[in-house]
Amino acid sequence: MQMNYIVLDLEWNQCPDGKAAENAQLRFEIIEIGAVKLDETLTLVDRFREVIKPQVYQDLHFKTKEIISLRAIDLENARSFPAVAKDFLDWCGKDAVFCTWGTADLTELQQNLAYHKMPSPFAFPLLYYDIQKIFSIVYEDRKSRRSLESAVDFLDIPKSVPFHSALSDAHYTSQIMQRLTPEQILANSSVDYYRTPKNRRQEIYLTYETYTKFISRPFRDKVQAMKDRTVISTPCCKCGINAQKRIRWFPVGGSNYFCLAHCEEHGYLKGKIRLRHQHDDLCYAIKTVKTITPEEAYAIREKKEVQKLKRRLRKKFSNDRTP
Ligand SMILES: [Zn+2]
Asked: How far is the CA of 251 from the centre of ligand 1 (A)?
């Protein structure tokens, strides 16, 4: 069977009466699904678009009203989420490779499926292609993230339809993909974090051209996570040999850690750990290890000194304040 790219864009609504009134099981309710199907050569094959009648938040949040063009009457006459989602997933087919602009859509889709007690069709781990990230890797600095419209401007893609409708945004994203090669896209997968590893056996190891990524099982807290040998190890991203630390893991901000390691064959390596909380209050670690230049290694040393100084100052000021 042939593989297809499904370029997906969702529009969602949130509680119009503020956070206090919101349904904790469904913060973002999907009200429109738009998608474009491309074949292996990135040629347009088909489109999907359907509006969804909301069941949790009947009125639109003012922000939702501002950006999308849906009218109350469109929503009122639409089918409900389970019916639309089922048709959409059937339309996607078995060998779908999902592409989105940014990291949110697949997470919200899974959250909405779970809310409606529908089975998840997605594999674990769910790998997808974040075209916003890949655009940055190919055309910019890997780190910056542009809005869809500014990427469309950058590539001189004609702006024939307004933005912020699910189908038009999926369509623009697919046109950006057509300015990339399948190789550039497929070499840069992302992991969706809606479902993360439950145990050691499920932990995720991914290798990319310039770095490796590891996603851990859950830990009770930060301290437990930063004691785990697999979490804090620094295997070289080129050869896998455990590289020696030159600077041990040090905290930057509330939930990031950096370290500097060195592989005899491949030189300096930068380690980064982000600790993220899950709904159940447990935390898991996302670690990346990448090769860096001696200048970048020096910058990590500097960063560490700055952090040390900041901590000292904070301590001094809090001491000064105590009578
Ligand atoms: Zn190495």
From this structure: 25
* Of the options 3.30.420.10, 3.90.226.10, 3.30.457.10, 3.90.950.10, the CATH number for the domain spanning 4-186: 3.30.420.10
pLDDT for 204-255, tens place per residue?
A: 999 999 999 999 999 999 999 999 999 999 999 999 999 999 999 999 988 9
CATH 3.30.420.10 location in the chain: 4-186
- Tell me the residues surrounding ligand 1 (ion) with CB < 5 Å: 236, 238-239, 263, 265-266
Q: If you measure from the C-alpha of residue 240 to the centroid of ligand 1, how many angstroms do you get, rounded to a whole number? A: 6
Q: Please write down the HEC assignment for all residues of 110-172.
A: HHHHHHCCCCCCCCCCCEEEEHHHHHHHHHCCCCCCCCHHHHHHHCCCCCCCCCCCHHHHHHH
Q: Whole-angstrom Cα distance, residue 23 to residue 15?
A: 8
Alpha carbons 26 and 219: distance in angstroms, whole number: 25
Quote the pTM value.
Answer: 0.90
Span from the CA of 262 to the centroid of ligand 1 (angstroms): 8
Q: What is the pLDDT of residue 144?
A: 93
Q: Separation of 21 CA from ligand 1 center, angstroms?
A: 53
